[in-house]
Amino acid sequence: MANCMVFHTQIASIMEVLANAAVADICKLVDDDYAVFRLEMTQSQKENRALRRKLQLLELKVARERVLASRPSSVKILDRHRGMARGEGHLTGGHRSFVKPARHNTWRDDQPNTVDEGSGTSTQHVIVIESVDAEDAGPGVKLERSEGEDPGQSTDIQTGAAGVLPVATEDPTTTTPPRTRRSFTEVSGTPNAVLKSDTETLTVAHRGSDNRSDAERLGSLGCPPAPSSEDLPVFHQSLKTVNSCGNTDGDTLDTGGDDPSCFYATEMDPGNISVGLETQTDLSRGDWNRYSSSVYSEGCLDKKGEVIAVDKVTVKVEGDTPLTWNADETHLGEGHSQDFLDYRDSLETNPNVSSHSPLHTLRDCAPVSTSKGPYDSRSRVLFDQVLNSNDRARAQAQGGGATSGNSKEKRFLCMFCNKGFSCLQKVEIHQRVHTGVKPFSCTQCDMRFAEAGSLKRHQRVHTGEKPYSCPQCHMRFTQAGSLKRHLKVHVGERLFA
DNA sequence: CTGGGGACGGGGCCC
DNA sequence: GGGGCCCCGTCCCCA
Q1: Which residue stretches belong to region Disordered (predicted)?
Q2: Helix and strand totals (H; E) in chain A
Q3: Buried-most residue among A39, A109, A157, A216 (CB within 10 A)?
Q4: Is the separation of the CB atoms in A272 and A279 below 8 Å?
């Protein structure tokens, strides 16, 4: 009996030893595999980074070659603070002025529309590619780019001689700077970036990193917070105007009324995008290779809507150079990055959509907004919209869409989806679908609209005006379509079977 | 079924 | 006459 017990004990101990050994072996195997796996992952990541850098350099190189091939080096590339050609306001000496269009109903004569320089922050900073003479093209490319989240660091990409100020002056007399210069905007995660130039300093703060509220930021700049400023970064184009929240003579449009029900502002959906699209070179050919990227911003708007400050910085990019894009530095998850890569591919496979589309900028800008406002919540939607619209564009191109059929009448093509429009303004309005630019803002609420008519229609919500009344009942409606739809109730038509 | 916004085409006016 | 600008109407969609 005792021997039996000893035997069992020995067996148990042996089994325990064996089990421990097996576990140890398994653990060792797992550890080894994990180490190998991590090593492979690290190597893959390194390769990815190297390939991206290579791609970046190639893009730069191609850009430089295109520039050199397309025009003499003395051509002015950068024209910041460009005034708007349309009747939507223009810049005068770095200040944004608004001129009421002659028949612009959204600006009522009795409205004290005050346009003032805003103040605040923005998530944007300017990347300048300075393309110097031919001898600089090639391996001598100097890439200066903030890789990290270094506050206050300006992120300029400069090629050629260092020390050149990254932002062109707005001095109209210096129309032909000695160097070819490219400037475009990008939103990055840089918490604070200060752009300096001969004439101005752009204080750019990253919303997501700024713990202060917008009201605090605005307040610190002497500007009351805008009702919608919570969602909107504010971009200052000039130091001269940073603290000029009060009215300035040149920028004030005071029509003397007391109904600031609406105003016209050039703003954009900050959560989506930071550029607006304005021009194209050869509209008849749908050639959008040269375009302007306008950095819209919002200034101050007090609660009463009496003081509206709008600021705008226009960064004009001319020439054929594609915007550089660094996937490494988009502050995105991998999924987003992949989406953008896919879209980039789709863009570039679309022969009618310029590869220099501001969507390259958009790709950088849209997903990095950290604001929490309603517009921000739509950023992803808008991006998907752009993606889808591009697919639609291809479908149109293949299936005899607007671009192939009546190209004579609809010769203005959307640079995002290729849809054709009869005139430039139509396509500009349409492109707001893609860019998220909503220049028309209601002063009585935070609503923004891409079209003036929509704002006007919206105003009836506040005024209570219901001009459309049913002749068969007492129902009244704010929209004609609503009345028309309602009339079907009386005639027995049902919307749904 | 209504309220309200997005999008777009048509048409008038002006240059 | 053509093009640009602007307004309006309409359809569609969603809440």
Answers
A1: 135-225
A2: 9, 18
A3: A157
A4: no
pTM exceeds 0.70 for this model: no
Each residue's pLDDT tens digit, A273-308? 333 333 333 333 333 333 333 333 333 333 333 323
pLDDT single digits (tens) A72-111:
333 333 333 333 333 333 333 333 333 333 333 333 333 3
When computed from its CA atoms, the radius of gyration of chain A, rounded to whole angstroms, is 28
Pairing assessment for the beta strands A115-116 and A308-309 based on DSSP bridges: parallel
Output the distance from A452 CA to B3 C1' rounded to whole Å.
Answer: 19
Structure tokens that stand for A122 in this block: 């923005």
Q: Evaluate whether A154 touches A195 at the Cβ level (below 8 Å).
A: yes
Strand, coil or helix: A96 = strand
From CA A250, how far away is CA A58, in angstroms rounded?
46
Q: Give the helix ranges, DSSP H, for A282-378.
A: 334-349, 359-365, 374-377
Nucleotides of B under 7 A from a protein CB: 1-10, 12, 14
Cβ-contact A204, A122 below 8 angstroms: yes
Chain centre distance of CA A235: 13
CA distance A293 to A40: 41
A104/A269 Cα distance (integer angstroms): 22
In this complex, the residue with its CA at the shortest distance from the C1' of nucleotide B2 is A482
CA of A454 to C1' of C15 (A): 18
Q: Which nucleotide is nearest to A419 (CA to C1')?
A: B8
Token digits of residue A468: 């459309």
DSSP A9-35: HHHHHHHHHHHHHHHHHHHHHHHHHHH
State the nucleotide closest to A482 in CA–C1' terms.
B2
- CA(A51)–C1'(C5) in Å? 48
Name residue, tokens 């915007």. Answer: A323
Q: How far is the CA of A374 from the C1' of C5 (A)?
A: 31
A106 touches strand C (CB under 7 A): yes
Residues 443-472 of chain A in contact with strand B via CB under 7 angstroms: 447-451, 453-454, 457-458, 460-461
Could you report the per-residue pLDDT of A213-222, keeping only the tens digit for each?
A: 333 333 333 3
